[in-house]
């Protein structure tokens, strides 16, 4: 196993790993609750995945197979950079195949390929506190969670409806975990919210700059906030993926020319490539 | 036909190459040495050590070199290295009253024991560009100063004087700043998360690591009415202080070295209360190396954050410097720089979901307007 | 330093053979067990435990306890080899106060402390709570206990040797106090099962 000279396996020292591991165990035992942890300065900037990286570094072992995605893609520069960091400091195998991975670190998406029991999905979280825009003071929001005073969030969503005729939150859409804590699922599109509900995989969330970890255990109820007369709904596209013809995936818009012509393709590059390899062909496929 | 953009790994490798070239600049110009940075950019080195929370001039100089002079990047480099270091021991509290002074001034007293020591300062330079420094060999160096020995021990002839706190404290006019008998071991922000509310020791740690520019602006705001304090510069001192470590096996403390510090004691009025006689209160600032602006700004902010402790009228909404959460959550430039710049990372998934919503809202708005126009017509 | 002098190191059992990898595998086992209540996780290649502790019980303390987490051991083990072993290998403080302990190691299920005596966390910080690590005489996935809750698809079965009505009452009361509460890890030799505070337990007659 090739590991970077002068650094411990997975970069973090063992005492730091133990501290994060204990925080993760409490996070699993209290689903959706934000556990404070002694986040360390990492060799990547805050805001670029330091929370996810610390969680992954505390989890990863020599037998793991790691997948890293950003915006659903394995080959965006930040995903490439984080993957190469872990290769350098752990020597573990990496993959782009969702099914092969034991650990998946992600920013802003949940893979389209359904996750299996035993897999762990690690989210990079910029702002963990769902009430932050409604109440900036941490001391206050902590009390609000303790009392489950979540009325302000419903009021905010209702004001959206009054102004726009619908809930205008499109990503990082708030959820209630296990009928108790209000949680931010990180800036995944609300399209991915239904995948949080009773997912067989363990989902761990790391916010490095904000120094919090939290978890959704497997098969845990995760409900997106809504109203009887305005039920939660996900994004829909009028056309399938231009490359693989999928109609069930989240699509990115790509502008093709100066005239504003555009196409829609899967944001999950592995899912799209897999479908194309299996013979599915979109309108603009090679 | 469309082919998706690939090759992130190659692009990153190429970018590293270009960065190395950009950092080095024209290879015809001699490369900077670590010693040159350490000796000739000492104030930059001091800032990187303070905000990087690591007293190591060589590593700070290396970080400045590697960061091409971007001090916040250098601070980040030093911090990322610092986290990997084992924690060997805790020092004894530094006795800044025993500082061998290079400089010491008080604005509150005309003279005081130990005297006013102007020392090296930009304060009374007339800010005229010194074109003689354009030459590689400076002609403005004092005669004889070029020898290495003259600078080997900058504080060799300096004096030790009691701090302003000791002097005023004897009359009971200044609040004491002694640890309580059961003073707990200080919280360590490099190992544990910042949780609110926080005690003063933790606040001071946060401010000591805090961005100089941020503290400067926050401190400045308190002088312009966005707070209620009216401070005097009781004392500002800069010099060298011994660091001691208590060795269990020996049963006493041994000196392990000396560090350069700048300390600022601000003095402000306090009217007293039913239980507390009127006296002066303090704001405290401390920084590695020679860093008066940082130490003073820190002391202003420290005092502003103590407003509640003294029962002063505070207005958290309009006076950000009095707002503990606001100040302490935004003071760290490594955190701030990372999060501001993370906007460079792709956000097209979130953007797409907003774009989708906006198109729907637009369609509905246009339909509604068309309907309204038809009715009007 | 004081510690080293009073211990006879030559008689102390060794800890992890490969500390980094062994601690990681143990932690993943514990994480797996807590994330899947009712599942029994087998830990492999564990070091021989000191007398009075089980292999998985001892190993997970090696993996998770350190100077920041006071450990409570029954008085009979605290000053015996088990206590020396944990102090030496984990650097942890052994506490006689249940209310201080982050990890509590009761002598058996029959000796479970009262819930009120354990660190329950605070409403704002429910994570500041105890984890109990109990060695039992037998663990099996089919059995009288019916478990439901996060981590369980529908319902899981668990059989625990020595389980009593008091244990069921303890877990129910613990669940009732959510989000405050304690989390239980049951060990049996090299096996491990997790009962986080979220678990709902019923016992078939």
Helix and strand arrangement:
The complex is a heterotrimer of chains A (286), B (377) and C (205).
Chain A: H1 14-29, E1 35-36, H2 50-59, E2 65-70, H3 77-90, E3 93-94, E4 103-107, E5 120-124, H4 138-147, H5 151-164, E6 175-177, E7 181-183, H6 193-196, E8 202-207, E9 212-216, E10 222-224, E11 251-255, E12 262-266, H7 269-277
Parallel strand pairs in A: 2-3, 2-4, 4-5, 5-8
Antiparallel strand pairs in A: 1-9, 6-7, 6-10, 8-9, 11-12
Chain B: H1 8-24, H2 34-40, H3 42-52, H4 57-66, H5 71-82, E1 100-105, H6 148-152, H7 164-169, H8 200-209, H9 212-223, E2 231-247, E3 252-268, E4 281-288, H10 292-305, H11 324-330, H12 333-341, H13 348-376
Helix pairs in contact in B: 2-4, 3-4, 3-5, 4-5, 8-10, 9-10
Chain C: H1 2-6, H2 19-35, E1 41-42, H3 55-64, E2 71-72, H4 75-78, H5 81-90, E3 94-95, E4 103-104, E5 131-135, E6 139-148, E7 156-160, H6 165-176, E8 183-188, E9 191-195, E10 200-203
Parallel strand pairs in C: 2-3, 2-4, 4-5, 5-8
Antiparallel strand pairs in C: 1-9, 6-7, 6-10, 8-9
Fraction of residues in β-strands of chain A: 15-25%
Radius of gyration of chain A: 19 Å
Strand order of the largest sheet of chain B: 1-2-3-4
Domain module count of chain B: 2
Assess the beta-strand content of chain B as a share of residues. Answer: 5-15%
Largest sheet of chain A: 7 strands, mixed
How large is the count of helical segments of chain B? 13
- Helix content percent band of chain B: 25-40%
* Largest beta-sheet characterization of chain B: 4 strands, antiparallel
Model description:
The complex is a heterotrimer of chains A (286), B (377) and C (205). Chain A is α/β, with parallel strands linked by helices. In chain A, 27% of the residues lie in helices and 17% in strands. Chain A starts with 13 loop residues before the first helix and ends in a 9-residue tail after the last helix. Chain B is α+β, with helices and mostly antiparallel strands. Chain B has two domains: 2-82, no CATH class; 96-121 and 153-177 and 188-331, no CATH class. Chain B is 40% helix and 13% strand. Chain B has helices spanning 8-24, 34-40, 42-52, 57-66, 71-82, 148-152, 164-169, 200-209, 212-223, 292-305, 324-330, 333-341, 348-376, and strands at residues 100-105, 231-247, 252-268, 281-288. Chain B is globular. The two termini of chain B are 47 Å apart. The model of chain B is unreliable at 145-152 (pLDDT under 50). Chain C is an alpha/beta fold. Chain C has a single domain (2-8, 16-204), classed as Bacterial phosphonate metabolism protein PhnH (Rossmann fold). Helix content of chain C is 28%, strand content 21%. Chain C has helices at residues 2-6, 19-35, 55-64, 75-78, 81-90, 165-176; strands spanning 41-42, 71-72, 94-95, 103-104, 131-135, 139-148, 156-160, 183-188, 191-195, 200-203. In chain C, the strands form two sheets. Chain C has a seven-stranded mixed sheet with strand order 1-9-8-5-4-2-3. A three-stranded antiparallel sheet of chain C has the order 7-6-10, with helices on one face. In chain C, strand 6 (139-148) and strand 7 form a beta hairpin. Mean pLDDT of chain C is 93; it is low at 1-5. Chains in contact: A-B, A-C.
